[in-house]
Amino acid sequence: MARRGHHLTEVALLASASGSLAAAGAGEREGWLDDPAVLLSLGPRARDLAVASAARSVLGIVPVAGGGGVTVKPALGPDDGRISAVEWVPLDAEGSQGEEGMTVVVGTDAGWLLFYSLAGDLLHKQSIYPAKILKLNFNERKENAWEDSGSDELSVVFPGVIARCDGADLQIMLQKSFQEVKSRMWKDKFEQEDDEDTSSFEKTPLQIWNVSKFGSCVDAAIVGLMPPPLLELQSSQRHYCAITVGEDAVVSAYRLSEDRSRSLVGAILSRGVAATFSTISSLSKILWRSEPSPTKKPRPKPQAFAKTSPLTCLKDSPRKGERLTLSPSGTLAAITDSLGRILLLDTRALVAVRLWKI
């Protein structure tokens, strides 16, 4: 009988960065990676590993090929929540590696996003929506000569809500912040205000949609562009397709429109009312000469929902959707459910291709 050989492949060398891993709770007990409070994200080309601990409020950035890691302790106040998601975002479209090529974004269960450089510097902080961030996913769209496949994007998933940040806008903002931090022009300001004042950060444009028509979702993804409705006039506005999974509906599909259908009159009235209220408030302070009481700065109001059109859903009680994973091209989605099945979905035709039972 032939002797069976053992073939081993080195996947990662993390011993040199044991300090950053230990800060996230590595090695304290057997099976520490199974802790739901420990969040992992492997960088592009598997060169870096981000390890976040919600319980310890710590983010570790570890080079897989060896070398010292970086430990970041995000300055999260009581209203900022705890870490609930982590993802890698490239600083440029080419996705170059090294300190100047990648950033790590952390999401919290209070709806905040915090972007860090590989050196541990805070580049950006922004409130997206006051709910727990379930998942962050940066999708790099490949150029296609036959069709418009869209641009790179960062999607932020909440229970029943999904937001989208355009990759180009995000990268321009991060590059600007990175250069400011690198030149040390605002270093003192960052150290004093990163945990309290978010007004010093430029607000990143985004779109946000309500995708809870068929019930709250536990996972979701924007799978790409889709054509507008048949009876709708062609315009420059884009429409995206979103797939969600949840307890009420195993899988659902929505058309997401960039246009918020807000009239010009409504926009003028809203600005006029806000300006009038501000003037009255200023006059009342002058007349009454009241001393300004020290109040806590209010959280920025969430952006209004853009238009969402439900397309289809699959309800099969007691079956519940659990996880959703996209193929690199976004044309296929693997969906797991509570009955131990894996559904392979064609995201363009919105039909099931395969179904496996584990």
From TrEMBL:
Protein name per UniProt: Predicted protein
Domain Rab3-GAP regulatory subunit N-terminal positions: 32-357
Signal peptide residue numbers: 1-22
Gene: LOC123396194
Record key words, sorted: Signal
InterPro entries noted in UniProt: Rab3GAP2, RAB3GAP_N
